[in-house]
Each structure stands twice: as C-alpha cells, then as structure tokens.
Amino acid sequence: MFFADRYMIVIMFVNFMIDLGVSGLSLNNLLSRSVGFDYFLYIAPGANLITATVAAFQSGRDVWRERIIQDTQHYLLTLPVDKSTFAASRLFSGMLRAVVTVLPGTVVIALLYGLSFPFFLVSLLVMFVYSGAVAGLSVAAASMANSLELFATVRSTVQVYLSFFSTQFYPSSILPPAVAAVSAFNPMTWAVQSFRALQAGSVNLGLLAPLAGLSGALMVVGFMLYRRTMNY
Amino acid sequence: MSAKPSTLSVIRWLVERDLRTLVKSPFIIINRTIFFLIQLFVFAVLVSRLASSLDFNYFDFYSVGLVVSTITSIAFIIGEDLFEEEELGLLDYLLSLPFGHSLFVLGRALGGAVRGLIYVTPMMVLVAYVDGNLSPVGIAGSLVVIFILATGISGLSITLAMLIRNANRFDITIALAELATVRVSAAIYPLFYMPGVLQPVASYSPVTSASNVVRAIILPASYSSGVYDWVILLLFVGIFFGLGSAFLFRKIEGGKFE
User: Fold this and answer.
1) Between the CA of residue A91 and those of A111, A190, B83, B135, B157, what are the distances in Å?
2) d(C-alpha A4, C-alpha A8), whole Å
3) In chain B, what are the domain boundaries?
C-alpha cells in the first residue's frame, strides 16, 4: 500500500531536504564559528531521524483511523491471522515503512559522512531500530486515544521530546542536569550518537545497545496496548 | 420564511463556532503551550549558549520568531478541522447553510485567526517581558500583525484541505507546508545566514514580514521593518482568501473522497 503512494515518499524526502538543506545550513552558518566544529554534519542525522519519526508515527495514525474513523478494526480481526501476530506485524510494517521512507535521506547522510557500504547498512539498522521505538509509541497512543485531538497532542508531544530533550541539536556537555537525565531515556539521543560514531569510523555497541533496549521496551508497550483493544 | 442572515452575523457565528472548538480542545492548548515553553527555555537558551560569538542576541531574535512560527502552526489547524469535517460529512451540511461560500471561507479564516490569537497572546506577553519591552501598545501592535498573518495562513490551510482528498497525503502535506513556511523565512534565523539561493524566496515570505514587523515593535533598538513587509502580508491574505473560496466552489462540484 505504501509503495503505491510514491507521493508520500517524495513529500517526506522534500521534508527532510528542507530540514537539512534550509535549517541545517542556516544553523551551520549561524553556529559553526562559535562551536568550532561542522555543525551541519553534527545535526544532519537528526533531520533524517525526524523524518523517520513522522513516517513511523503514520503506523499509529493508520491504527487510530481503523479504530475510530473507518471502523474497520472488527473486519481486520476476522481475517485468518492470530491477533498477536497481527499486532506484531503492524509494528513491524511501521518500522519497514519508516526505513523505506528515509532510505533516500539515509543515502544522503551516508554520502555526507563518507560511509562505506557496510557502515551504510549499519546506518539503516539504526534507522530500523529507532523506528521501532516511534512505532511503539504511536501504536500505544493510537490504542488509547479516542479523539484525533488527543492523538495529535501525543504525536506532537513525542516529537518535542525526541527533538529537544536529546542531543540532536546540542552536545550533552551543555545540557542542564535535568535535561541530560531525560535525554538518556530518549531513543533519539542514542540513534543520533550512533550515527555520529559511524562518521568517526566505528560501530559503537555501547550506543546501539541502549537504543535497542529502549526501542524494545516501547514496542512491547505498543504491542500490549494495541492487543488490548482487540479484546471485547 | 426566515430572513437571510446578515454578513456580520454569519461571520460572528462561524468565528464563535471555531472558538467553541478551542474551548473543547484543552489538550491542544496545553500541548502548544508546553511546546512553546520548551522551545523558548530549552532550545533557545541552549542554542544561544552555542551562539556565543554572534554580534546579536540570538535568544531575543528567536523568541519573537517563535511566537510568529507558533501562530503559523496554530493557524494551519483550521485546515485539519475542515478536512475532518469533510471526512465526517459535516462540511456538506455546512456548505448547504444559507450563506455564500466566500463568506464561509472568510468566517473560517477569521475563526482560525482569532483562535490562534487567543493561543498566542500569553506567549506574546511572555516574550515581550523576557525581551524587556512589556509595553501594552507594543503588544497590541504585535498582535494585530500576528492576526493578519494568521488569517492568511488559515486561508492557505483551507485551500490545502479543499485540494487534497486523501487523509495521509493531507497530513504530510500540511506538515510540509508548515515546515516550509516557517523554515524558509526569517522566523528562526536571520536571512543573512540562510543559503544564498533561498534568501530572495525567504525575503518574500509573509512569515519573514510578520517577524520583521514584530521584531521592530518589540526590539526597536536592534531591528526595523518597511512598508514592503505590510504589502507582502496583505497580498498573502488576499491571495489565499481567493484561493480558499475558489477551491470550496470546486468542492461543491463533488468528487470521490478517499
């Protein structure tokens, strides 16, 4: 269904390019002299991860629309698929969809960072694992929200949390202690740091492990809440 | 037979209806307020620390731009409301009411703008306070500028809602439109620091014009604006009010809703 809608992929890529090419370059021009490093390269993976966030949240949006607007969840549950398998596959498809959406952006980042092909594959893995965290959050929100307003509120709150309480824009060394503590529980922090480690020429398992742990936990939450909506 | 309602009473009814939606939407108000405060006191403070070598105060610059970008985001919500009404079949009913469709667009655009103004008034006061210019006249002048911008953005949002018939496409397009109008402007960084090819585009952005005028009001010692800023703002409102009306007429012609 997603591949049929090429419009979405194009629009998401344009979104990414605005983030990277407009905001990234402008902030780089503004800050590079002060910070003493290439700020554009520093924030580049964050732009791609934000696009992944938007794409992965669409899986929750679909679940919400099926439950509340289209009223098709009952029909879907009559299909010859086990409910748990169905719920898990929705999360998995959300992750795959996000990775496909950010593929062009990931190629751009890999080119900017000069990554080798194996490291490019690792970067796709980072996107996949990160998307799991967002898909889990979005499906959890979709399973609990009965109004568009509440779902949209959760969506934007999650986006704010992922963007501003992480090391997407600023190094952890300048974060106030409270923000630093919150950022440690933010999948964006570990995903963006994992990307930066790839540029430095290493696959840092010390960064990938917390990302995988957080994503796993959030996916379990999403799965359980979604599964609960299927019980009558 | 009842008399046809007057133009003013129709506009008042439409604006009131959008304001009632605001009252019924406490989550959105709380969320936008928290979003604003986090951007101001986390993002702007931390980035200002990074921008220590600049010859201007980035926090002050950003704070005004943040109010303008917040009203832009909020004004886009009116299109989402219209899209939802279309999905639920309510829009057909509203369009069957005994008043013209241009009046409907005007009322909804004004409703979206008034709603946005109510959201951002406390934010504008807070920014004026932290920027050290808590003048009632300055705040009132800034709110007028913001209201004009919000009317135009509401018109743009209504146009998109009438143009796109697929919910996912609409969601993504509205997010893109919001991103483009805010980022390709002088709301969050000065034009001088933008990539050269985008500077001419951003200089004609209504968000740039609104930011310039409000900065000139709130931070008069550091910023100024010109007549062209007002011309751009008013042209923007005129164009998207016209387009919104045109696409509503097209909507009446029917078509398959996906």
Assistant:
1) 29, 21, 27, 52, 31
2) 9
3) 11-252
Give the closest residue to B124 by CA, choosing from B220, B20, B217: B217
Q: Name the token pair of B258.
A: 């996906």
Tell whether A1 is covered by a domain: no
Q: What distance lies between CA B52 and its chain's CA centroid?
A: 31
**For range B33-58, the mean pLDDT:** 89
The DSSP call for residue B196 is G
Q: Does B84 touch chain A (CB under 8 A)?
A: yes
Chain A CA closest to residue B88:
A69
Q: Are B104 and B240 in contact (CB under 8 A)?
A: no
**pTM of the predicted model, to two decimals?**
0.82
Q: Would the CB atoms of A69 and B49 count as touching at under 8 Å? A: no
CB-based contact A61 B168, cutoff 8 Å: yes
Cβ partners under 8 Å of residue A101, min gap 6: A2, A8, A9, A12, A51, A52, A55
pLDDT at A192 over 90: yes
Are residues A50 and A70 in contact, defined by beta-carbon separation less than 8 angstroms? Answer: no
CA pair distance B71, B147, nearest whole angstrom: 8
**For testing contact with chain A, the best of B86, B87, B189, B207 (most A CBs within 10 A):** B189
Among residues B167, B162, B160, B8, the alpha carbon closest in space to that of B94 is found at B162
- Contact assessment for residue B204 and residue B120, using Cβ atoms and an 8 Å cutoff: no
**Which residue's structure tokens are 């951007």?**
B39
- What domain count does chain A have? 1
Give pLDDT tens digits for B160-203: 887 777 777 787 788 888 888 999 999 999 999 999 999 999 99
The whole-angstrom separation of Cα B172 and Cα B183 is 16
Give tens-digit pLDDT for B135-153. 999 999 999 999 899 888 8
Q: How far apart are CA A179 and CA B40, in angstroms?
A: 14
Please give the radius of gyration of chain A, using alpha carbons only, rounded to the nearest integer. 18
